[in-house]
């Protein structure tokens, strides 16, 4: 594998792509630690020391994860790439509901460019809302769970300063979105995915060091071994797929013969990726938002119920069961809207393709739907179990940081890593070089 890396850097165009990607990721990480105007960075560090698990159990834990810890530092890139992810998910869902968006999606590159532009506009609006929410929580002390006073890390809380902070974080989101598009166009891999990957990996060493400092050597070794086994299992599941054979009949077009070839439709076990986990996590933040609006100290029965069963730490069995059910449900829902068996069957019939022993048309669509349902069932259960690992570790050890191998982070790291390696391998194979995956 090291030899393949050497060959990759010896190839001029691939070397330029890799160096450009590394440069953008470096600038992104620098912006994740630069504080926004009006923020005392020294006081922020002191607050983070007082709240050991603030970045793991807070209401904005997913945003903080995708920003590489920039959220709790109130940095320029505090909102990170999360507004763009949310906007992309919303546009994908609306494509099924709104006929105009569905027609744009079928227009090819021109229609996709318009959908991308709509995604940018929606990202800008979501970034303003999210930045305003972050500043409001920081101003009231809820961002750090009341561990330190807002006057310590935000000495100037005048309206112009707060507006400047919101505009700075919004501009940071736009810059991060631009970085992702630059990597996709001129670098290697999917830009947005690599930015999330870099954010998660940046926080990984500190989690490992925290384990080393808080746990014994045997526990540390056990966690590392369990993490490696888990990564190997995730790689195995992410690579698993069911290949549906497809044959194309021969047909004459003018004086040329077309068709007569055989191929396959690859259906992955985890067809939905990490999207169901993000959906479920976002939905389970709503109870905490309701508690924040009503008031933590309120004697309202709804607040008591949400505080007991849907606490931010997520250790209650009701919370874990709800989280698991939501992930399974969203997995089936997302696969249903992203893969249309009827459309695939119609396209195959149009070009003379058929599945052996299956009649074209409606029987083919029913067969694809049957296979997809059987694949999605174990895939959704797998997603739910992986997402619950940090919560189970928290309930068993009492420290969420004691098990960094799990949940959304491990799924993203493995998925993005495999996709990037495959793209580098494809560049090497074009020059008859031996790739990473043998």
UniProtKB/TrEMBL annotation:
Gene3D superfamilies hit by this protein: SecY subunit domain
UniProt keyword list: Cell membrane, Membrane, Protein transport, Translocation, Transmembrane, Transmembrane helix, Transport
TM spans (from-to): 70-97, 118-138, 158-180, 192-212, 218-237, 316-339, 380-397
Topology term for the membrane: Multi-pass membrane protein
GO terms (BP aspect): intracellular protein transmembrane transport; protein targeting; protein transport by the Sec complex
Keyword RNA-binding: no
NCBIfam families: 3a0501s007 (TIGR00967)
UniProt protein name: Protein translocase subunit SecY
Species the sequence originates in: Murinocardiopsis flavida
Upper classification of the organism: Bacteria, Bacillati, Actinomycetota, Actinomycetes, Streptosporangiales
The gene coding this protein: secY
């Amino acid at each position: 594998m090291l030899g393949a890396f050497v060959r990759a850097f010896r190839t001029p165009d691939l070397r330029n792509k890799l160096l450009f990607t590394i440069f953008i990721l470096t600038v992104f990480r620098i912006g994740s630690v630069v504080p926004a105007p009006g923020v005392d960075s020294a006081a922020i560090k002191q607050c983070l020391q007082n709240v050991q698990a603030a970045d793991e159990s807070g209401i904005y834990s997913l945003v903080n994860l995708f920003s590489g810890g920039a959220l709790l530092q109130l940095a320029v890139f505090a909102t990170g790439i999360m507004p763009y992810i949310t906007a992309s998910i919303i546009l994908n869902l609306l494509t099924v509901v709104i006929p105009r968006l569905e027609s744009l999606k079928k227009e090819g590159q021109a229609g996709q460019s318009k959908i991308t532009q709509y995604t940018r506009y929606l990202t800008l609006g979501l970034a303003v809302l999210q930045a305003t929410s972050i500043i409001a929580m920081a101003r009231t002390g809820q961002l750090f769970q009341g561990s330190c006073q807002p006057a310590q890390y935000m000495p100037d809380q005048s309206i112009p300063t707060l507006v400047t902070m919101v505009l700075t974080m919004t501009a940071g989101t736009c810059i991060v979105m631009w970085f992702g598009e630059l990597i996709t166009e001129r670098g290697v891999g999917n830009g947005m995915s690599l930015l999330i990957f870099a954010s998660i990996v940046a926080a990984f060493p500190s989690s490992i060091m925290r384990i080393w400092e808080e746990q014994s050597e045997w526990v540390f070794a056990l966690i590392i071994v369990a993490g490696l086994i888990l990564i190997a299992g995730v790689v195995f599941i992410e690579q698993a797929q069911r290949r549906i054979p497809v044959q194309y009949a021969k047909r004459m077009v003018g004086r040329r013969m077309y068709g007569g070839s055989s191929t396959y439709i690859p259906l992955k076990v985890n067809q939905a990726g990490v999207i169901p986990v993000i959906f479920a996590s976002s939905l389970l933040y709503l109870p905490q938002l309701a508690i924040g609006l009503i008031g933590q100290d309120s004697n309202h029965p709804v607040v008591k119920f949400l505080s007991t069963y849907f606490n931010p730490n997520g250790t209650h069995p009701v919370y874990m069961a709800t989280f698991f059910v939501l992930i399974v449900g969203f997995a089936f829902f997302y696969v249903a809207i992203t893969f249309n068996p009827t459309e695939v069957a119609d396209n195959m019939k149009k070009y003379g393709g058929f599945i052996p022993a299956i009649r074209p048309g409606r029987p083919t669509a029913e067969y694809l739907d049957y296979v997809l349902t059987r694949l999605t069932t174990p895939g959704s259960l797998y997603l739910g179990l992986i997402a619950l690992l940090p919560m189970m570790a928290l309930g068993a050890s009492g420290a969420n940081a004691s098990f960094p191998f799990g949940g959304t982070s491990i799924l993203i790291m493995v998925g993005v890593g495999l996709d990037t390696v495959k793209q580098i391998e494809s560049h090497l194979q074009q020059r008859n070089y031996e790739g990473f995956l043998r």
